[in-house]
Design brief:
This protein has 339 residues and is α+β, with helices and mostly antiparallel strands. The chain is 34% helix and 22% strand.
Length: 339
C-alpha cells in the first residue's frame, strides 16, 4: 500500500506477471483484491505505526531554526476536508449531495511534522476538536477564526499555553490600555482588552491582546487576538503567518499521495489509506534529515515521491540529478526502502 501511494500499483505489478508468483500472488492483482484487504485489516495498525514514527521525526527536526528567538514549541491547528462520492460512501454524508471526511491536524512547525492527527466525519466542526487535544504549557497554538470559542480558548490559557488567532469583526471589547506605537510602522495598534458581553466575559474572564497589523505587500489589515501579553506585536504577526505551514502540509498530501481515490469504500479502508499516506510522509521526512538531503523538506518530499524506487545519490543535490541516467554507481545511494 506504500507502493500504491506513490505509483499505479495495478499497472506496475501486472506489468511483470511472471514475477507475481514469487510475491505470493497466483493471479494478476486487481483493485478489488486491494479493496478487500483494506476493508479487512484494522486501520489502527497503520495509526500505531504513524504514532511510532511521529516522535522519531519530531526529534530529528526539533532544532530547526524558525527565524524566531523562541524556545517554545509552535503548533499550527487546522483541518482539511477530503471529498467523497455520496453514492459510494453513504456513511460519510455531511451535505445533501456530498460526502466527505476531515483530517484534523496539529502540525509541529519545526520541520512541518504532524504531532496529532484525527480523522473524523466532515460534519464535526473544527472548534469541537479542541476538546480532544492536550495542550502543553508554554507552547504556542496558531489557528484561524474557525477555532474561536472563548470557553475553549480559556482552557488553553489555563494550562499556561498561548494561542494566536484572528479576531472576528463582530467581537466587542473594553479597552484597558494601549502600547504606544508609530502609525508609520506595520503595527497600527496594540491594545490589551477584556470582552464586553457578559456571556463572553464569563467564558474568558482574563485579558486579551488585540493587535491591528498592516500588510503592506498585499495592502490588507489583519487583526490578531492572543493571550500572550509580552512578545512584540511583530512577532505575534509572524507567528500567525507561519500557520501557512499546515496548508502546505495538506497541499503536499493531496497532490503527491493517493488519498482521493480509495481502495475500498468502508470507513476502515479510508482510514487505512489515509494513515498509510501519513506514514509515507513521515518516512520521507526522516530520510531527508538522516541522509542530510539538500534543499527543503517539501522539495525532497516531492522528488522522493516521484522517484521513490530509483537510486538517488545522496552526495548530489536532488534538483540537479538526471534520474533517467542509469549509469550511476550504486554506492552511496538511497531509495525510500533503505529506511
Amino acid at each position: 500500500m506504500v507502493f500504491a501511494q506513490l505509483s499505479d500499483i495495478e499497472t506496475c505489478l501486472n506489468a511483470r506477471p511472471e514475477c507475481l508468483y514469487h510475491l505470493g500472488c497466483e493471479k494478476p492483482i486487481a483493485r478489488s483484491t486491494l479493496a478487500e484487504a483494506n476493508e479487512q485489516r484494522d486501520w489502527r495498525v497503520w495509526q500505531d505505526l504513524g504514532h511510532w514514527l511521529i516522535p522519531k521525526a519530531r526529534k530529528l527536526y526539533e532544532a530547526e531554526d524558525l527565524g524566531l528567538e523562541l524556545d517554545n514549541s509552535i503548533y499550527a491547528l487546522d483541518s482539511t476536508t477530503i471529498d467523497l462520492c455520496l453514492k459510494l460512501f453513504p456513511w460519510a454524508d455531511f451535505r445533501s449531495t456530498k460526502a466527505g471526511i476531515k483530517m484534523h491536524t496539529q502540525l509541529d512547525l519545526s520541520g512541518s511534522i504532524p504531532s496529532v492527527i484525527d480523522i473524523t466525519p466532515a460534519k464535526k466542526a473544527d472548534v469541537r476538536w479542541l476538546d480532544d487535544l492536550i495542550f502543553e504549557a508554554g507552547s504556542f497554538y496558531i489557528m484561524d477564526r474557525g477555532y474561536i470559542d472563548f470557553k475553549r480558548l480559556f482552557g488553553i490559557a489555563e494550562v499556561q499555553a498561548f494561542f494566536v488567532t484572528r479576531a472576528k469583526d463582530n467581537m466587542r471589547f473594553t479597552r484597558h490600555y494601549s502600547t504606544p506605537n508609530d502609525d508609520s510602522t506595520v503595527v497600527r495598534s496594540d491594545q490589551v482588552r477584556k470582552l464586553t458581553l457578559p456571556k463572553a466575559r464569563e467564558d474568558y474572564p482574563n485579558q486579551l491582546r488585540r493587535i491591528r497589523f498592516y500588510d503592506a505587500e498585499n495592502k490588507r489589515y489583519f487583526v490578531f487576538l492572543t493571550n500572550n501579553l509580552q512578545l512584540p506585536a511583530e512577532v505575534i504577526a509572524r507567528l500567525y503567518k507561519m500557520r501557512w505551514g499546515v496548508e502546505l502540509f495538506f497541499k503536499w498530501i493531496k497532490q503527491n499521495l493517493r488519498i482521493k481515490h480509495f481502495y475500498g469504500n468502508s470507513l476502515n479502508a479510508v482510514k487505512t489509506q489515509i494513515w498509510i499516506s501519513i506514514v509515507v510522509y513521515l518516512i520521507i521526512a526522516i530520510l531527508h534529515k538522516k541522509f542530510k538531503l539538500p534543499g527543503s523538506l517539501h522539495r525532497s518530499l516531492q522528488l522522493l515521491s516521484v522517484h521513490s524506487f530509483e537510486k538517488i545519490p545522496i552526495d548530489q543535490p536532488l534538483a540537479k540529478r538526471d534520474f533517467r541516467n542509469n549509469e550511476t554507481s550504486t554506492s552511496n545511494q538511497l531509495t525510500l526502502f533503505d529506511f
